[in-house]
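Handout, section 4.2: multi-component inputs.
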Amino acid sequence: MSSMMAQQIIDGLAALTLLISFALLAQHRMLSVLHWFAAQGLLLAITAAVVAYSSGEHELYISAIMTLLLKGLLLPWMLWRVIRELHVHREVEPLLNSGVTMVIAVAVTLFSFHVIQPIQVTADLVTHNSMAIATACVLLSMLMMITRKKAITQVIGFLAVENSLFFAAIGATNGMPLVVEIGIAFDVLIAALIFGLFFFQIRDTFDSMEIDTMNASLVHKDDDE
Amino acid sequence: MMQSLALSVALLACGSVIMAAIVAPMLQHQQNIQRALLCGLLGLTGLLACAAGFSGLMNDGGNIILPLGLPWLPMHLRVDMLGAFFLLVIGVLVFPVAIYSYGYLKHEQRLTPLAIFLPLFVLGMMGVVLADDAFSFMIFWELMSVSSYFLVTHEHQYIENRKAGFIYLLMAHMAGLLIMGSFATIYASTGSFEFAAMRDAEIAPLWASVAFLLAGFGFGTKAGVVPMHGWLPDAHPVAPSNVSALMSGIMLKVAIFGFIRITWDLMGSGDFQWWWGALVLAAGSSSAISGVLMALQQHDLKRLLAYHSIENIGIILIALGLAMLLAEAEYPTLAALGLIAALYHTINHALFKGLLFMGAGAVLHSTGSRNMEAMGGLIHRMPWTAALFLVACISISALPPFNGFVSEWLIFQTALMAPQLDGTLLTAMVPFSAAMLALAGALAATCFVKVFGVVFLGHARSACAAEAKEVDVWMKLGMAIPALCCLLLGVLPALFIPLLDRVPYTLLGTSLLSTLASGSGSAGQTSTALSWLWLTPIGAAHASYSAPIILLGMLVLGGLVFWWLHPKGIVIRRSKMWSCGNPHTHARMQYNATSFSQPLRRIFWDVYQPEEHEHAERRQHKLLTTRVRYVVHVSDMAVKHLYQPIGRFTLWIAKALRHEHQRDIHAYLAYTFATILFLLAAFT
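Output:
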């Protein structure tokens, strides 16, 4: 596989990742969001494998496998369990309606391409086109955290930010050192575990998974003081 | 690196005070040893600082680079003429205050905080004077500010002390920030934090003005220049009296030192612009007059003294402003005279204000009150304190033969020579300032007649004043030393001025006496021939003053009057004073602090805008009055019209922003998002 072709494949995968980010932002059903999130994990693993093959850095295969297991399977499964236990199947009406969110998302994507332009010119890695897309994905995932009301979707948004950062790392540097990546993978795992615990705690405390309800009871406490 | 005697002694002084800060707090359980060690080491520091100051003024100073501080910026210390003079000011007050503290702190329960922060405070002040780079200057400056905050809030069980401490800390930090800004401005033109490089560098006039303004406001805040004086009348009264003596006596002077260091030394008199001097002159005049006017209406003894500090800082600034104007107009000799006058008043104020605060502390120690309305007749029970306090009162009122007169006379001499300046604004301003100075002097004298009269004369107004006891020998000794210095500086100014004259020599390149000696005619010869007797700053044709002759004349005249009033052989009948034959007098029938200042309250009604409340209890008819209650409150205009609006505005903004602090998580995420977008856009 020539480097030209590798670049073509990576660009294609990057485009798919961006598409998934948009899909995450547009979806309202919990299970679909989860599916798209798992798909993003899968894509990441494939990207890592392709980069590993084209650059000849065999350590990246390990991180590709780790990504597949962790982000493609384990995290989605944990979240799926949470959704099933807590019976949260639909996101309530988001803060901004889908149309407006999409327009903002497109603007943010254009903005990140504009911002990354000067870097792209100087970069000579095979993956340099993916930098702009990774930045766009980070911003889109943040946008998802801003616009959603359910705690679970916010957590998925947070994990999607992490996914995009991982993508940016592969794109910019051919992957971080393996030790760092294992560390980050464990961090994400632990974070997911803690989030899972929190979800149950939150439901017990507030009888709801909506952030507005939590805020309301907090504000109520403030007023009592 | 050049070592010298002055520098070695100064470093020894620093070592001694550091040792006090380390060792004294460890002796928490042996209060007597702790107090003795603290005061002993502080006294030693004072003596060493005096010695270093003298030796620095007599011979050349030296500099040293200590391997402390930042790796690329070791600590530069240097003793130059200006620093040596201020070392002398520090030492000459720290020594007596240390002796005084040994008596004053005898019954102090919580000695350890004082044992930590008092030496650190003194170390900070000495370090500021010694520092030879901006970085160590700021470190010592902040050490001075922060440790004095802890001293101000020493009795932190009272809420007003904590409030005063907070305002003090706030304004000290503001001042620190401004001063840092000033150094940063100079640094931008020189690229070095070392003072030596800053001296050599050329600064563009605009940036020099910025640095001057920042330094002026920064050091002005610390020195208590109106209207940045808000912290001062609150902080001085609540600190322990030995600390107030140091704060008012030296710390304000260290601010003056910093101002002279930046404007005269680092930027140099060549960079002066005409409006700098005019601004300093205006600030000085307003401080002098409003300080003394506010002082007149106080009945808290230490608060009154604090307002007098503002007045005296104003007087020093008047002299400095005149000197700056004259230096800018290329009259170096007269500028040297103004600078000498300013420095002379600096050391004078350190001495007599230190003495006054120590006297106030002695009164507070014996009566347990700062309220003048509760005192009276203390001269019978505390004769030593009364006599020493009187010396300080006469000094601060600028009356011969004490030192206050000499320095104010020198300032007047400078102001009288200023008509040589051109520019209508200046020719109008200088006489106006001189008039303000004269008015301030007269009002200060009025004020101290009030203080001495109400506190020490008459009859006791309360039980605590009636049962007051004279303070112990240490406190008396601590007060006697500055009193003696006041007299010496007042009687022999002609011996002290040649020493001072070396400061303008390094700053202006010219000195007063050398130009006078080379001056023509008999005037110069007289001044050299009888130099210890006559003080002739400009020339005998203009003005000269001989303190020894005045003192002799006063003694002779006083003796004659005494002899005439008390001829031998006549028995003196003693009876109640001012009773007008009525045997039933009451202590409350005396003039008190409020009634004494009533005429001035009428005259300056528009300035004070006092709030008066009169309440009379009557029995049916208005002639049958049983009790009249009169309350008058004069509030500080600056606090009312400047500080409170600023405080309200800050609170208003905080309230408006508080809403933004209590948003939900989406808003916070949106803030983060917007910030990231902004940073991405801004840095690409």
